[in-house]
Specification:
The chain is mainly alpha-helical and 192 residues long. It has 2 domains: 96 residues, Rna Polymerase Sigma Factor, Chain: A; 76 residues, Orthogonal Bundle (Arc Repressor Mutant, subunit A), CATH 1.10.10. The protein is built from 10 helices and no strands. Helix 2 packs antiparallel against helix 3, helix 2 crosses helix 7 and helix 8 packs across helix 9. The chain is globular and about 55 Å long.
Length: 192
């Protein structure tokens, strides 16, 4: 089988049959998405890497529990969300800044200086991103999971419902409540 041309579901079935190369292809395809979900929960690079690695290992170990009737990506995203939630519970939301983010040190060999408007735009974008990350903390775990899967991962409501094991109506309610809470938390950003 040409692994690069196979669908995620075909790869998952191959992995269930014992083809470890299929797992390597699934990891190559989805490690970025798994990391992104983990980062949105943990707000920390190292923690997100740990969560993503744990989620991918869990996917490998629990591949026999995946059923072809459900999509592979929603199943994998559910594992990632659950790993992130478990991680936060274990670490009681203790967060720390990366030293390389806090104290960016260059070697001074940069030949091109950034333009002021690009730097200002990037600073503003980073501030907004930080505010959104803080605002995500006010959401319940279910609201956060639904919001991240919908707005960061682009999953459809039915895929989110499948991933979380709930109804589409429940997903809609969680998403609506999440958006309302975020509007309150971030109202100063859109009032400007």
């Amino acid at each position: 089988m040409d692994l690069t041309a196979a669908s995620d579901e075909e790869l998952a079935l191959a992995l269930q049959a014992g083809d470890d190369r299929a797992f390597e292809e699934l990891v190559r395809r989805h490690q970025g998405r798994v990391y992104a979900v983990a980062y949105r929960y943990t707000s920390n690079r190292e923690d997100a890497l740990d969560v993503a690695q744990d989620a991918l290992i869990k996917a490998y170990r629990k591949i026999d529990s995946w059923r072809p009737s459900g999509g592979f990506v929603p199943w994998l995203m559910r594992l990632a969300v659950n790993q992130a939630i478990d991680h936060l519970r274990r670490h009681k939301r203790h967060r720390h800044a990366d030293l390389d983010e806090t104290y960016a040190v260059g070697d001074g060999s940069s030949a091109i200086e950034p333009r002021l408007e690009d730097t200002a735009r990037q600073v503003a974008a980073n501030e907004i991103d930080a505010r959104v990350q803080q605002a995500l903390d006010v959401l319940s775990p279910s609201q956060r999971a639904v919001f991240i899967m919908r707005h960061y991962e682009g999953l459809q409501l039915a895929e989110i419902a499948e991933a979380l094991g709930c109804t589409v109506g429940s997903v809609k309610v969680h998403l609506f409540r999440a958006l309302r809470k975020l509007q309150v938390e971030l109202r100063d950003l859109y009032e400007e």
